[in-house]
Structure formats: C-alpha cells, structure tokens
Amino acid sequence: MPSVTIYSRQSCPYCHMAKDLLRKKGVAFDEVDIEREPQRRAEMIDRAGGRTTVPQIFIDGRHVGGCDDLYALDRASGLDPLLAA
C-alpha cells in the first residue's frame, strides 16, 4: 500500500471529507495538522507547489491536490490505481 500524507486543520470540513474518503477506501494515512505543527506549513506549501489551502494530499510523494482534486480523481477512476500501487 502506498504512503499517503494529508496536511490538514481540525476545523476544516474539506479535510474531514478527504480523510473520510481515504478511510472509506481502507487507506491508512499520515496526518500533519498545521495548526498543531505550524512549522510544517512551509513544508506543505513547498511540496504543494505554492498552494496554501488545506487539505493538501500526497500519495507516494505525488501531489494529488486538495479535497476537490481527490474526489475528482476518484470519480475519474484514477484514485484506486494510485492506492493499489
């Protein structure tokens, strides 16, 4: 199973939606809460090519994007192959 990292905030409904989809797919993920670890925000922005919103999701180091991007990838049947790799 690939490594999945999600940068998030507790108060973010999109973060909760993205995590719910990953859980529904049976995927374990590492969560980085940028409110609890504010020093990691710069890391997220750098990895995400300048994107500053949460969530930012990475599968095996590949930037997938945010919640809308994750759901769009799933609707296009592109998420399962990434998670099965």
TrEMBL record:
KW Cell inner membrane (keyword) present: no
Keyword set, alphabetical order: Cytoplasm, Disulfide bond, Electron transport, Redox-active center, Transport
Ranges for domain Glutaredoxin: 4-64
Top-level taxon in the UniProt lineage: Bacteria
MF terms in GO: glutathione disulfide oxidoreductase activity
UniProt cross-references to CDD domains, sorted A to Z: GRX_GRXb_1_3_like
Signal sequence range: none
Keyword Transport: yes
GO terms of biological process kind: cell redox homeostasis; cellular response to oxidative stress
A family per Pfam: Glutaredoxin
A GO cellular component entry from the record: cytoplasm
Family recorded in the similarity comment: Belongs to the glutaredoxin family.
NCBIfam families: GRX_bact
Function: Has a glutathione-disulfide oxidoreductase activity in the presence of NADPH and glutathione reductase. Reduces low molecular weight disulfides and proteins.
Name under which the protein is recorded: Glutaredoxin
